[in-house]
Amino acid sequence: MTKKRKRYPDLNQKLERPWCFYCERDFDDLKILISHQKAKHFKCEKCGRRLNTAGGLNVHMTQVHKEQLNQVENAIAGRGGLDIEIFGMEGVPPEIIDQHNQQVTQQHFADERARQQATGNPTRGSGMNGTANKRAKKNETLEEIQERAEKFRIDRANGVLPPPAAEVKLEPTPPAAQPFASPPGSFPPGQFPPGAAPPAQPGSIPGGSGLPQRPGFGAPPPGAFPPNGAPAGADFNASLDDLIADAQKPPTAETPAEKKSKKDKNIKLVFFDDIVSPEEKMALLPRYAEFARV
Amino acid sequence: MSSQFELAQNPTDPISAVKFAPNSSSRLLVSSWDRNVYLYDTLAEPGGKLLQKFEHSAPVLDVCFGRDDNEAFSAGMDWEVRRIDLDSGAQTVLSTHSAGVRNVFYSAPHNLLVSSSWDSTLHLHDLSQPGEFSTVALPAKAFSLTASPTKLVVAMANRSVNIYEMDMLAQAAQAGGHQDVKPWQQRESSMKYMTRAVSCMPNDAGYASSSIEGRVAVEWFDPSEESQSRKYAFKCHRQTVEGQDVVYPVNALAFHPVHGTFASGGGDGVVALWDAVHKRRIRQYQRFPASVQTIDFSTDGKYVAVGVSPGFEDGSDDVPDGAIKVFIRELSDTEAKGKASKK
């Protein structure tokens, strides 16, 4: 099975997505946008009631809590005003829509460029008429070709290496291919090419372990793991799965622990005691203790 | 239309309890750490009228009305449970604990006065036998006391909660001396932190309790699994300050005598009304100027009194400065009424 190619949405799909006027977040669906606005922007901080619009929340606040709503919660700067009635995508001023569309368009092209740089894949639509990776077509006359052929013959006679061969040598090889690029046997026994983990070097493990060989270059250096997770020798392959599991565990194990400690840290009890009540502590204060019976 | 006002003459030290009279919704008792019990007529004039002040020898931790609007009971750091004749101002000591007395509760149907103390005992006073009382040992210091028509709930240190049957207590009170009354039920608080307050539902079905860690639990008396599985707890009286969750103790709980909803008051100075059955908050009032220490509804459910004063906070050497005031709120007909569950 080959990996399914990731589909990136095109610009039109991105522009069609509903988005929130207050925080510029975009959503798959208008319904989700509306529930987002009710939860994040139109929720009463006093009683948690979710209203449909900022105006509705204002009326609720004045009638129920006798308070004045000054601005919409969680809004980005300049968007918290109550003068505009927003519901989903309705009520968004056209100039703000234009501004948002422009931003989305710019972001879209920036993302595409970044992806193209990272993957080397042609950008969308550049496969047919794009010129990025294409060499200019050479229009040589017969004389020019003959001239080039003549130069080559002279160079070869003089021992000058043809440029194409030099090019091949200079081309960087992907690091993954390194151990194979260097001819086997060119290293003295007991020594390993730099960069390859010694126990993982194919052929260095005596055969008959019964386990399928793993490609040596796929194994991370042992130093990347905590000391307890770095066995050596023939155990290496057997415990590689565990190692990978270990390597993946710390982040997942850390996150809940972190969350928990965060939770603990962020709570401050105004009064904390298991045995002695606030009144008993108050009773010990000198100004009250002097009247207490003993 | 609902309205709110504060009493004009307030105690000078933190307020420990506010209580409405059984037969009048304008007669209010307030006990304070300034060693006084105050009696007000809240409606006599704007800001209420202070009718009388009853001096004690030590800070008063709780007060309650007795058989009628002219009898009151108080408890405090003088270890004594007192009866106060509100007409004459005469005080009689009913019993003496061996530590501060935290709460007093008067049960009209049984003519029984119960006091709970930091000495880990209950004192039962059968008021038809003046001068007599019985002692019931508790497993820990008592922090809060409440009762429904048939059950008495004591919340104690170590998160323990004892539920007694009123009839059993009334019998024990008649017998006098040390009584070994078995609690009808012994429970552990469903919350992780110290219990702060308990209050019974007026319909005798269960009670609400609150903890120092911004939480309120609602449970039912009925020991059947079905009823027990209905119990729940929720967070409240918290505030996010600069990304930190500041958790306040829930100091006060009071059920509305008519609608069966309840109010909670916290160290954050907020009073919220809750519908225990539908698990909904009905409303939350604007923040009071200091911690809410005590809440009481009038017998007809038309008024609510809120005692506001700075509470003891950990890490402080003294009670912080702040407003010491009693607020009276007149409730509109539907203000404390639970809503039918929506949607």
From TrEMBL, chain A:
- GO molecular function annotations of the record: DNA binding; zinc ion binding
Query: Which PROSITE patterns does the record cross-reference, listed alphabetically?
Result: ZF_BED (PS50808), ZINC_FINGER_C2H2_1 (PS00028), ZINC_FINGER_C2H2_2 (PS50157)
GO CC annotation: nucleus
Alphabetical UniProt keywords: Metal-binding, Nucleus, Zinc, Zinc-finger
Could you tell me where the Polar residues compositional bias lies?
116-132
Q: Which Gene3D superfamilies match?
A: Classic Zinc Finger
Q: Which residues form a coiled coil?
A: none
Chief site of localization = nucleus
The keyword Nucleus is annotated on this UniProt entry: yes
Specify where the region named Disordered lies, as residue ranges: 103-264
Q: Where in the cell is it found?
A: Nucleus
The annotated regions of Basic and acidic residues compositional bias extend over 138-156
SMART domains (alphabetical): ZnF_C2H2
Q: What is this protein called?
A: C2H2-type domain-containing protein
From TrEMBL, chain B:
Q: Which UniProt keywords apply?
A: Repeat, WD repeat
Write down the Pfam families for this protein, in alphabetical order: WD40
Respond yes or no to whether keyword Repeat is given for this record: yes
The yes or no answer to whether the keyword Coiled coil is present is no
InterPro entries for this protein: WD40/YVTN_repeat-like_dom_sf (IPR015943), WD40_repeat_dom_sf (IPR036322), WD40_rpt (IPR001680)
Give residue ranges of the WD repeats.
94-135, 250-284
Name this polypeptide is given: Mitotic spindle checkpoint protein Bub3
What's the encoding gene here? BUB3
